[in-house]
Amino acid sequence: MSSTKTQEKLFYRIDEVSRLTKLDEAVVEAWEKEFSFLQPGVTGEGQKIFRARDVDMIRRVKELLDKKNVTLAGAGRQVEAEFGLKPRPSVHPDKLLKALYQVRDQLRDIAQSLEKKPKKG
């Protein structure tokens, strides 16, 4: 893991994360979408905030990509292992589709039962 731990503050704005990690804000935002373990909060003003641990994970991903020459997916798996994170289990698309069809059918049944009830009034 990186020897430079981020512990001065509890939360960091995205511009601070960008400065601390020497990454463009667009890269940080792209990694948010790529890695499920990066989930910034949002302030009342709509500004993204990252925990100190998020900054440490971003630094580690950058280090793995720059110095260890691993892929983005490999860096994600390594960070999950090092930080004790559980990877999100993948769901087979067919299983997901089946679940969505079941929900759709249940919603249709509910809608039909509501249409059959006599209106009060």
Summarize the structure.
The chain is mainly alpha-helical.
Global shape:
elongated
Major pleated sheet? 3 strands, antiparallel
Please state the oligomeric state of the protein chains shown.
single chain
Per CATH, the architecture of the domain at 11-82 is Orthogonal Bundle
Helix residue percentage: 55-70%
What structural class do you assign from the helix and strand content? mainly alpha
What is the end-to-end distance?
68 Å
Radius of gyration of CA atoms, rounded to a whole number: 21 Å
Number of strands: 3
Give the overall pLDDT as a whole number: 89
Content of β-strand: 5-15%
- CATH classification class of the domain at 11-82: Mainly Alpha
Low-confidence stretches: none
Q: What is the ordering of alpha helices and beta strands?
A: EHHEEHHH
What is the helix tally? 5
Q: Enumerate the strands of the largest sheet in spatial order, edge to edge or round the barrel.
A: 1-3-2
CATH topology grouping of the domain at 11-82: Multidrug-efflux Transporter Regulator, Chain: A, Domain 2
Tell me about this structure.
The chain has helices at residues 14-21, 25-34, 52-67, 72-82, 93-116; strands at residues 11-13, 41-42, 48-51. Helices cover 57% and strands 7% of the residues. It has a domain at 11-82: Multidrug-efflux Transporter Regulator, Chain: A, Domain 2, CATH 1.10.1660. It has 121 residues and is mainly alpha-helical. It starts with 10 loop residues before the first strand and ends in a 5-residue tail after the last helix. The chain has a 3-stranded antiparallel beta sheet with strand order 1-3-2. It is built from 5 helices and 3 strands. It is elongated and about 65 Å long.
